[in-house]
Design a protein that fits this description.
Elements lengths: L5 E3 L5 E3 L13 E2 L3 H7 L4 E2 H14 L10 E3 L2 H7 L3 E3 H9 L4
Antiparallel strand pairs: 1-2, 3-4, 5-6
Helix pairs in contact: 1-3
Length: about 100
């Protein structure tokens, strides 16, 4: 049995390489967006982190952040179908996006 090669850090301490076959963490797991969410981020499977990034790209491209409070997102027609309301905070958004990912 061969030993996993170790890398040396500048201080000379050994660091093990990650083992092959590890499961992806929750942010890396490929998920299928719902039809409403796919209208914003595109179809196909995406990792949760990619979905959040693409939603933010959409929000910024369409100037949907409240100019008085940047933490608040003002939903357009597409996002209203995903969020279920006209305004959400950036903290609520992640919880609402999770409901549209399988």
């Amino acid at each position: 049995m061969t030993k996993t090669p170790e890398k040396k850090t500048p201080k000379g301490t050994a660091v093990e390489k990650p083992k092959a076959g590890n499961k992806p963490n929750a942010l890396q797991q490929p998920l299928q967006p719902s039809e409403d969410l796919a209208a914003v981020v595109g179809g196909g499977t995406l990792a949760r982190g990619e979905v959040v990034s693409k939603v933010w790209e959409y929000i910024k491209a369409n100037k949907l952040q409240n100019p008085d409070d940047g933490r608040e997102i003002l939903a357009d027609d597409k996002l209203r179908k995903v969020f279920g309301k006209d305004k959400v905070t950036m903290f609520e958004m992640n919880k609402l996006l999770a409901q549209h990912l399988k």
